[in-house]
Amino acid sequence: MVNIIMVSSDFSKRIAALQDMIDSSSHIVFFWWAWVSTESWVPDFRSKDGLYNQHDVQFDSYQPEYLLSHSCLYRDTKVFFEYYRQKLDCRGIKPNITHKKLAELEKVWKLTSVITQNIDWLHQKAWSKRVLEIHWTTQRVYCDKCGKRYNPDILFTDKRAIPLCDCWGLLRPDVTLYEEQLPADAWNQAMIDLRTADLLIIWWTSLMVYPANALIQYYRWDKLVIINRDPTSQDSYADLVFHEGLGEVFSALKI
Ligand SMILES: [Zn+2]
User: Fold this and answer.
1) Which residue, of 58, 176, 185, 226, is most buried by count of CB atoms within 10 Å of its CB?
2) 90 CA distance to ligand 1 centroid (A)?
3) Which of 43, 60, 75 has its CA nearest to residue 177?
4) What's the CA-to-centroid distance between 149 and ligand 1, angstroms?
């Protein structure tokens, strides 16, 4: 099963191969690098429709990374919150089949951890315990002046364009934005888990740039599975490649 790219082979054969890998592994790490982990979530700020909103913010005049950056939060605060409210409101979203199956794998002691950029809390809603949130979470909100903690829903329910604390400090999510320092604890634990993993499954996205690609280097490249709807630059390094959706792959597995 080493260095055999089977992307062109039958889906059921590739699923059987993945099932074998999972059955024979005991330290699986799942790497999920996207801000929001619902497959239905499609960032439409690059598209031609729906560009304007109530504050006349035109998202497509900004780089996607800028909209989730420290600069945007403090320089274009209204833009940041408009984007955040429209794109990262995960309150009503339920875990999907992938979250559930990953939680099952953890329960039977196969999965070491999910290493993720996801900030949507869906793994925790599916009862996963070992979720290493490299970018922390939307589930905590604090005042950047006095440090007071708030219910995270306030960022979505506050009618003001810019949500403020009683002390007039800015309320912000406890999310590590672009240009901010990543939490050392989660990063260090992710390095350890990758070093000791015997199977790495990656949901590869176009955003798999630094630091995600740097983190993956800690894996010993034992068995590598890449799942992505489109071909990736790393496909040739994988033992198994799926160009199907995550839900399609995980639904087919017996866990
Ligand atoms: Zn305050």
Assistant:
1) 226
2) 25
3) 75
4) 9
